[in-house]
Amino acid sequence: QVQLVESGGGTVQSGGSLTLSCDFVGDLYSRYYMAWFLQAPGKERQGVAAMNIEGRTKYDDSVKGRFTISRDNANGTLYLQMNSLKPEDTAMYYCAARGPSGAPWSRASSYPDWGQGTQVTVSS
After folding, report:
1. Maximum distance among all Cα pairs of the chain, rounded to whole angstroms
2. What's the whole-number mean pLDDT along residues 68-73?
3. Is 105 exposed, middle or buried (0-12, 13-18, 19+ CB in 10 A)?
4. 37 CB-side CA count, 13 A
5. Is the distance from CB of 85 to CB of 12 less than 8 angstroms?
6. What is the model's pLDDT at position 87?
7. Are 56 and 43 in contact (CB under 8 A)?
8. Closest CA relative to residue 86, chosen from 19, 17, 15
9. pLDDT at 9
């Protein structure tokens, strides 16, 4: 059984920072890749950042230089440090996990396990 729980969302002014956390419960295989996705109402989920168990990272171009993904494999926790936030970053943020896969990291359908999401709102 796999379970993911996100926390850390909230409301912040443009230029501010937030740190999101995702607690993972489950087998190591199922969290080979962990990722953050965002979703705006009526739109598909979009990959924000991902990290495999060996530390390799991927970022969407829109967040490079502003967001940092990290993970603690021993504790099963994934983090997303979000700096220089912009109003366009406003969305629900979801934590996701998958086993080894050849699918692109940003393909939401390749992740079988998801958290409930945490809302991030950035005001002007």
Report:
1. 41
2. 94
3. buried
4. 25
5. yes
6. 96
7. no
8. 15
9. 97
Three-class DSSP category at 110? helix
**C-alpha distances out from residue 113 to 16, 20, 90, 110, 117, Å:** 30, 17, 23, 9, 12
Question: d(Cα 42, Cα 24) in Å, to the nearest integer?
Answer: 27
What strands, in cross-sheet order, belong to the sheet with 77-82?
A: 3-7, 18-25, 77-82, 67-72
Q: Is the pLDDT of residue 74 over 90?
A: no
**How do strand 33-39 and strand 91-98 relate by DSSP bridges?**
antiparallel
Residue 25 CA: distances (Å) to CA of 14, 28, 31, 93, 98 = 33, 9, 9, 19, 13
* 15 burial type by CB count under 10 A (0-12 exposed, 13-18 middle, 19+ buried): exposed
How many Å apart are CA 120 and CA 110, to the nearest integer?
24
Rounded to 5°, the CA angle 11-117-65 comes to 65
pLDDT tens for each residue of 92-122:
999 999 999 999 999 999 999 999 999 999 9
